[in-house]
Amino acid sequence: MKVMVIVKASESSEAGKMPTQELLLAMGEFNETLVKAGVMASGDGLKPSSEGIRVRFKGSERTVTKGPFAETNELVAGYWVWNVSSMDEAVEWVKKCPNPMEEASDIEIRPFYEMDDFAEIDSDGSARAQETQLRQTLAMQQAQSHCYLFFSGCCDEALQYYQKHLGASVVMLFRFNESPDPVPEGMLPPGFENKVMHCEFTVGNMTLFASDGCGDEGPFTGFNLALTIDSEAEARRVFDALADGGSVRMPLDKTFWSPLYGQVTDKFGMGWMVMLPGDDSQQ
């Protein structure tokens, strides 16, 4: 279940008093623990209500009021969004949180509505379908795409050329013989062990991925589009859609660089690499 964990405002937070460095570090450690446990989806602190605005709705009227607002106990100073198995689990996590204020303070836990809660009033499923479409659209708006170049044994040479003539900057590079997982037998031709398995480099404000690939068919064999999607469900949906009428070159599966990664060529001949972001806590 998804819950919002609400840090209630206090006199000090409404006065704009900044936390101590000790509290900032303690909160950072708590957030790191939440992230490593797979609980935290997002979270932020909010500025005092003196910098906020309220819009009151009354029929067709809209009344705008600038802060500050007097009801301190009704104001929010910060929040998290957590994915937990139950409210009891959320309570246990909150108990581990450092006191966010210098005085006594409250943290409130509220579960999110889910579409199942509206099943009775959404009898024909139209609202659920609309919600699903919106979630897919949001997931794809947040997806990252990169052009992935394959140089068939000439990647080092290409990188040096781009560095010299285009001012390229290599951000990261590792070779097949540096892979934490053994390369399958027969995958590489002789002499390819020291070739580039994966690298990332920039040209201007563009980030490109590159590799020597797994063969030496020629100086340049083409490119794929690498698509990184935060949602596993959306990654699987996109992969299946691209595979419809196309061909799967590598089924979606866990790799050492991604919790879920696969390769597919769509029905138009375009190659895709679909993946979830890597888990930094396992790196």
Outline the secondary-structure elements:
Blueprint: E1 2-8, H1 11-14, H2 21-36, E2 40-45, E3 53-58, E4 61-66, E5 76-83, H3 87-95, E6 107-111, H4 126-141, E7 144-150, H5 155-166, E8 169-175, E9 196-203, E10 206-211, E11 222-228, H6 232-243, E12 247-253, E13 261-265, E14 271-275
Task: Describe the fold and architecture.
Belongs to the YciI family. InterPro entries: Dimeric_a/b-barrel (IPR011008), Glyas_Bleomycin-R_OHBP_Dase (IPR029068), PhnB-like (IPR028973), YCII (IPR005545). It comes from Photobacterium arenosum. Residues 1-112 form the YCII-related domain. The chain is an alpha+beta fold. The protein contains 6 helices and 14 strands. It has helices spanning 11-14, 21-36, 87-95, 126-141, 155-166, 232-243, and strands at 2-8, 40-45, 53-58, 61-66, 76-83, 107-111, 144-150, 169-175, 196-203, 206-211, 222-228, 247-253, 261-265, 271-275. The strands form 3 sheets. An 8-stranded mixed beta sheet has the order 8-9-10-7-11-14-13-12, with helices on one face. The chain has a 4-stranded antiparallel beta sheet with strand order 2-5-1-6. It has a two-stranded antiparallel ribbon with strand order 3-4. A hairpin with a 7-residue loop joins strand 12 and strand 13. The longest helix has 16 residues, at 21-36. It is globular and about 70 Å long. The mean pLDDT is 88.
